[in-house]
Amino acid sequence: MRIGELSHRTGVNAHQLRYYEAQGLLEADRSANGYRDYPEHSVLRVTQIRHLLGAGLSSEDIAYLLPCAEGEVPELPGCPELLAAMQSRMQRLTDQIERLARSRDALAAYIAAAEQTGGDSYPPFDRAAVLA
Question: Around Cβ 67, how many Cβ atoms within 10 Å?
């Protein structure tokens, strides 16, 4: 099938499908006229990729996991290499969540301090200028 049909069947735009191909996540043959020709199982592959991306995995992680993926959701057998890769990603997410929580807490403290002083000692805040 051509890229337009794969895009239609999966709901993933052609640009993303080309990106998946460039990352080694998806394969296509080339027809004589140079068009991409995807095999039927590409629909399942794209669905698996979308689920794994939704879990926060990088395209590099996904490239490593995809050969073992089974089914649409997908299921991943618990071999030690796969488990180690997923645990590593989980730790990176946990670290990121902790950093965000610390930032949130620091910002909350600044807001509380500003509210306590009433903000009278500060010049007017021009939000549009700050965001520009």
Answer: 7
Q: Are residues 11 and 67 in the same domain?
A: yes
CA distance 45 to 32: 24
- Is the domain of 17 the same as that of 42? yes
CA distance 77 to 68: 7
The CATH number given to whatever domain includes residue 36 is 1.10.1660.10
For the question of whether the overall pTM of this predicted structure is more than 0.70, the answer is no
pLDDT at 24: 92
Tell me the per-residue pLDDT of 103-125, one tens digit each, with 9 for 90 and over.
999 999 988 888 888 755 555 65
What whole-number distance in Å separates Cα of residue 12 and Cα of residue 19? 11
The number of CA neighbours under 13 Å toward the Cβ of 85 is 20
36: which 2 tokens?
């991409």
Same domain, 8 and 58: yes
Q: Which domain holds residue 89?
A: 78-118
What is the residue type of 23? Q
The more confidently predicted of residues 66 and 5 is: 5
